[in-house]
Design brief:
Blueprint (H helix, E strand, L loop, with lengths): L1 E7 L2 E2 L8 E7 L5 E7 L12 H6 L2 E6 L4 H9 L3 E4 L5 H10 L25
Parallel strand pairs: 1-5, 5-6
Antiparallel strand pairs: 1-2, 1-3, 3-4
């Protein structure tokens, strides 16, 4: 199983669309992390909706995020990726919380960027 965490310098990025990279963690059948890699999103869309097919193709099943807009949540869920929002802290600590079953989603939707064109013409809106 693979989980993805929008990250910046080893921390969960507070907004999915602004992250430097996605930390991709591969877990074995006992939920032990056996591989960690960074995926740098392509330039363009500030909402990162264009990364969803890549995450799905990599086998990502869960995304642990700080926050994101409803459009990103919809695209991820349509691709079969469960979304947990409200994560904060180091990537390792957040992954450990999820593995232990103690990370709960806040279901809070980011609305801070409505009304400004931060989507760089990605065509996803």
């Amino acid at each position: 199983m693979k989980i993805a965490i929008p990250s910046r310098q080893g921390l969960v990025d507070e907004h999915f669309g602004h992250c430097e990279a996605f930390t991709i963690l591969t877990l074995d059948e006992t939920r032990k992390i056996v591989k960690e890699e960074l995926l740098t999103p392509p330039p363009g869309c500030g909402c990162k909706s264009n990364i969803v097919p890549t995450l799905a193709d990599m086998g990502v099943k869960v995304l642990l995020a700080g926050n994101m807009g409803q459009g990103a949540v919809n695209k991820l869920e349509e691709a079969g990726i469960a979304v947990i929002r409200g994560a904060s802290g180091s990537v390792g600590a957040v992954a450990a919380q999820w593995i232990a079953g103690t990370l709960q989603t806040t279901n809070t939707i980011c609305t801070a960027h409505h009304g400004h064109d931060g989507h760089g013409g990605c065509g996803n809106h």
